[in-house]
Amino acid sequence: MTATTRPAPTVALPLADSPLGRTISTTATDIWNDSCAIDELEYAISYGAVGATANPTIVTDVWKKEPGHWRERVGALAGNRPTATEVDLAWLVVEEMSLRGAKLLEPAFEAYAGRQGRLSMQTDPTFFRSPDRMLDQGVHFDGLAPNIIVKFPATAAGIPTIEEATYRGVNVNTTVCFSVAQALAAAEAIERGLRRREAEGLAVDRMGPVVTIMMGRIEDWLRLQTERDGIVVDPTALPWSGVAVFKRAYGLFRERGYRARLLGAAIRHHYHWSELIGGDVVITMPASWQRRFNAS
Question: pTM score, two decimals?
Answer without folding.
Answer: 0.89
